[in-house]
Amino acid sequence: MGNIWQNGMYGLIVGDALGVPVEFTSRQERKVDPVTGMREYGTHEQPKGTWSDDSSMAIATMDSIKTLGEIDYKDIMERFSEWCLYGDYTPFGEVFDMGISTSRAIMNYGKGVKPTECGGLTEWDNGNGSLMRILPVCLYLYERQKRISTSENESIYAIHCASALTHAHLRSQLACGMYYFMVKAILESDDVLIRRLQLGMDNAWNYYRQDRQNYAEMEKYVRLTDVQEFRNTPETEIKSSGYVVDTLEAAVWSLINSQSYSEAVLKAVNLGSDTDTIAAVTGGLAGLYYGMEAIPEEWVASIQRKKWIDGIIVK
Question: What is the CATH number for 196?
């Protein structure tokens, strides 16, 4: 089994690449022509195994953490800027997909705004652009907590700051925090996946419930409080938009209604709409649970710049 960085990051990147060719297509289109493996061209006219902004920003974050051995928000924003302006951390030196809130945050950074104040704070700044790239921060904090017994307050503060680089609204920060607790539960528990995810959500709820200022925003995620019950939610009630609440729900729903890495990410992709991000968010958790060996070899082999990605993972 690969290490947690390899498991999680390839889970994310492969999910992203599966979704790129059909991004923005409808669920009905996917019912007629379901994705069953890696495709090429399609929505963005990209070769097979091409990943998008989801992976670019996650890889940039991982590279910063691996290079410096810590979370440095300024360094991460520098790398985001290099991605945005010069095509660094892309498969072919060109950015073909970027969220509005993310581009605005990077522009703010270029104007001299403090990194953790670059993200939008309004109700309309709750896309999935921080959730899609939070996995490397979660993995670093998990390892750091094991190594030096840091407090949960420190970890959640770092998660919220990392989200705020592009998405500073509490709703987006809560989604990243819930994802962190699910990452931890998957890595620390030896139970079946649905119980690990329930443990993660229980821990998230217990943590955030300590501050009444979180209550109103926590209500946005109320369907995830009982994962077993949520499992039975009909697909027609699962939205697959770029809204952060929809994305987290769609990812959890795809995970708990599947029995393998492949089934989970394909279920996420075939929900339609924001296919790459939902599959990336799903894939990160699925990769951690099922392991690198569960990801089809041909999918991994098709990933663009694979050797370069491998070099960052082992730093």
Answer: 1.10.4080.10
